[in-house]
Amino acid sequence: MRRLLVTGGAGFIGSNFVHFVLENTDDTITVLDKMTYAGNRASLAGLPADRFRFIEGDICNAELVGQLFSEHDAVVHYAAESHNDNSLTGPAPFVETNIIGTFTLLEAARKSGIRYHHVSTDEVYGDLELDDPARFTENTPYNPSSPYSSTKAGSDLLVRAWVRSFGVQATISNCSNNYGPRQHVEKFIPRQITNLIDGIHPRLYGDGLNVRDWIHADDHSSAVLRILDGGRIGETYLIGADGEKTNREVIELILEAMGESPDAYDLVNDRPGHDRRYAIDWSKLRDELGWSPRYSDFSSGIADTVRWYKENEEWWRPQKAATERKYAETGQ
Ligand code: NAD
Ligand code: TDX
Q1: How much is the average pLDDT of 18-35?
Q2: Structure confidence at residue 77 as a pLDDT band (50, 70, 90)
Q3: Disulfide engineering: 281 pairs with which of 1, 31, 135, 238, CB 3.0-4.6 Å?
């Protein structure tokens, strides 16, 4: 039994990890979350009180972080500003949370000696051409495009330096695009599902041919737990599930799952600097730690996700109007 601290545990992937760990281990969990617009306490409802505790607070608060590190055996760091579009209209909180927040955690890790796992993204590697046979590996040079991905890249580099310079007991994972229940309606898949529920056409950026490499959030959680248990200190592991799809293909699957015509979508303004394609080679995680993803059927994963948003309108409805107002300002 381990005492885990999970930062950002009220967000999409952090809350998935909390559920996954409580269901699959004897560990106890404390969530530290600032409850920004992206945090949702409903994502943590019904968890066992003897194994789960919630603390509202900022990862940039060194005193609070230091106290919490002294009470736990390991920290898994999910807290971040996570949305590329927001980083283009207001980058300041990205620098604050993703860089200063990570720095604050690393300084506390250095003092306490706690085991630290850093959750990051494949976007740190930039993008690939559509016809490039290559996929990202742990040795691909960093080349981030957006304020979001550059602050995540900066945070990864801090972790590497704190391992090498100060012996912090850290591992890093870089995962591809996640989907599943409890994802904020600003993100691509939930935005389109909830638009369709509201009778609005899905909205595709640019030509709709950008490729993302999709993985179910449960598979991301099982991979992070595997790395926390068996990963080598100082190592980076890429997490993916061979899920490359164009955005247009994803929209067509959503439309099909919702009984709509496959061309019932609109093309809208492109995202500035929009990365063309991401693709992950996750063979290191398979070969070293014996991990593999469980969700192999993307269309049935999408159908399950559609069902979840239909059945849990009270979870997403409070954020929907404000999210769409933001998109209206950029013509998206
Ligand atoms: P999210 O936006 O849904 O959740 C982020 C959470 O962090 C929220 O609960 C928010 O309140 C909290 N938070 C933000 N600033 C904070 C601060 N200063 N102190 C404490 N808590 C704070 O994000 P997500 O999609 O669940 O992503 C989680 C992590 O996974 C991020 O680090 C992200 O970079 C990474 N990641 C995401 C994806 C993806 O597809 N969504 C893929 C790879 C990696
Ligand atoms: O309405 C939309 N229409 C559209 O075509 C939205 C919201 C997005 N898109 C496109 C942009 C991307 O090509 O869909 C794709 C996915 O967009 P997002 O959901 O915003 O994800 P992305 O920018 O790829 O980043 C995600 O994956 C990596 C997460 O938000 C990041 O946190 C993670 O690091």
Answers
A1: 98
A2: very high
A3: 135
Describe the chain by its helix, strand, coil percentages, rounded to 5: 45, 15, 40
Tell the residue nearest (CA) to atom 28 of ligand 2: 177
Please list the alpha-helical segments (H only) found in the chain: 12-24, 62-70, 84-89, 92-94, 102-112, 147-166, 188-197, 217-230, 247-257, 283-289, 298-311, 313-329
Question: Is the CB of residue 203 below 6 angstroms from any atom belonging to ligand 2?
Answer: yes
Residue 188 CA, ligand 2 centroid: distance in Å: 5
Determine the residue of 5, 7, 13, 152 to mutate for testing ligand 1's pocket, defined as the one with the most ligand atoms within 8 A of the Cβ atom: 13
Query: Which atom of ligand 2 is closest in space to residue 121's alpha carbon?
Result: 34
Structure tokens at 108: 């506390």
How far is ligand 1, taken at its centre, from the CA of residue 14, in Å? Answer: 7
Environment class of 228 (CB within 10 Å of its CB; exposed 0-12, middle 13-18, buried 19+): buried
Closest CA to 248 of 299, 211, 216, 277: 211
In the chain, what are the domains? 3-184+215-243+275-297 (3.40.50.720)
C-alpha of residue 291 to centroid of ligand 1, in Å: 23
Q: What is the pLDDT of residue 313?
A: 98
Each residue of 171-209: b (16+ CB within 10 Å) or e?
A: bbbbbbbbbbbbbbbbbbbbbbbbbbbeeebbbbbeebe
pTM above 0.85, yes or no: yes
> d(Cα 320, Cα 66) in Å, to the nearest integer?
36
pLDDT digits (tens, 9 = 90+) for 134-175: 999 999 999 999 999 999 999 999 999 999 999 999 999 999
CA 232, CA 169: separation in Å to the nearest integer? Answer: 9
State if residue 38 touches ligand 1 by the CB under 6 angstroms criterion: yes
